[in-house]
Specification:
The protein has 155 residues and is an alpha+beta fold. It contains four helices and ten strands. It has a five-stranded antiparallel β-sheet, with no helix packed on it. β4 and β5 form a beta hairpin. α1 crosses α2. It starts with a helix and ends with a helix.
Length: 155
């Protein structure tokens, strides 16, 4: 592709983006990159706003140890607090998080690398991740993700 053709294509995408902001997230990320190639915009979420006790409370992403889905969706903070969050799926949250810091351990949880106390292999090829105090939670890493988890942890 010639340079002027590429320039026209980028301008076309910029124009479409300004006219129609309802684009899939991967296209939005690409458009944001071209509109701001210096990279000053973070593509990862820096905070979540949680409705706690009738008040909207901003929670810094760096303060979140674990996202956990049970009958409700929970955020565990490093200080031990457990909050309910409104996102419907972990898949939605996973797309918003920096994969260098957060790892999808299984269907129920996404863990922060800084929350890990230790990892113990299990006989069924799963990993048992012990989280730091005051959390003292144990999270299983599925056998399908165990190798990927080890690489992520040992970088």
């Amino acid at each position: 592709m010639q340079k002027d053709e590429l320039t026209r294509a980028i301008e076309k995408v910029r124009k479409q983006f300004k006219e129609n902001s309802v684009l899939p997230s991967d296209i939005k990320q690409l458009v944001n990159y071209f509109m701001n190639p210096s990279g000053t915009l973070s593509k990862y979420k820096e905070r979540f706003v949680i409705n706690a006790h009738g008040r909207l409370t901003p929670i810094e992403t760096k303060d979140i140890a674990v996202f956990y889905k049970d009958t409700l969706n929970y955020i565990y903070l490093f200080n031990g607090d457990k909050l309910v969050y409104d996102y419907s799926t972990l898949e939605e949250i996973e797309e918003l998080l920096d994969p260098q810091i957060f790892f999808r351990a299984n269907r129920q949880s996404i863990i922060n690398i800084n929350s890990i106390q230790s990892v113990k292999p299990q006989t069924n090829l799963k990993l048992d991740v012990q989280l730091k105090s005051p959390l003292k939670l144990a999270i299983d890493v599925s056998r399908e993700k165990a190798t990927q988890f080890k690489k992520w942890l040992d970088r």
